[in-house]
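== Sequence and structure of one protein ==
=== Format: two labelled lines per protein ===
==== Data for this protein ====
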Amino acid sequence: TFQINLPPLRTRSGDVTELAYAFMSSYCRDRRVPEKEYSTEFLLVLRRYDWPGNVRELFSSIERAYATATDSPVLLPIHLPTSIRIRALENMKQKSSKPATGGRDAPEAGGPALPLSPLQEVREAAIEKTERDYLRRLMAESLSIESACQTAALSRSRLYALLKKYHIPAAHP
């Protein structure tokens, strides 16, 4: 055996989204339950939290959020433990160079209001969600990889790269 040293998850916030999507796919496949989507706000809270328990804590929190969401097809910040939402909010306030004034996201029932996120974070989360949803539908409706490539106007290698990124199976030969 050998040891691989990785920096803590708090220093790799960009990995949080990828890990969350991978975990959701694996968790749902293993339990044969439908996948739930992540709201943009949910992903932003995940990125803002410092994850002292690293990946194990992240996965445990997503599993708990899944159970808390019951019939909801989309995970929202309210489904996360209160301690995570509060700490994520504190982390955001600490990172901001000036106090938050005005512009806040709408408060969620039972949870703290989140400060307005940087545009780049919101844009990236929205693009990821849109690409993932599009690719799922594309693969469900396409008869072959060739027709999926033609419909999406993507090369085969680019399509496979995106499917891999979002952990979507290429079910066609």
About this structure: Strands lie at 37-38, 74-75. The helical segments are 13-31, 40-48, 54-69, 82-95, 119-141, 145-152, 156-165.
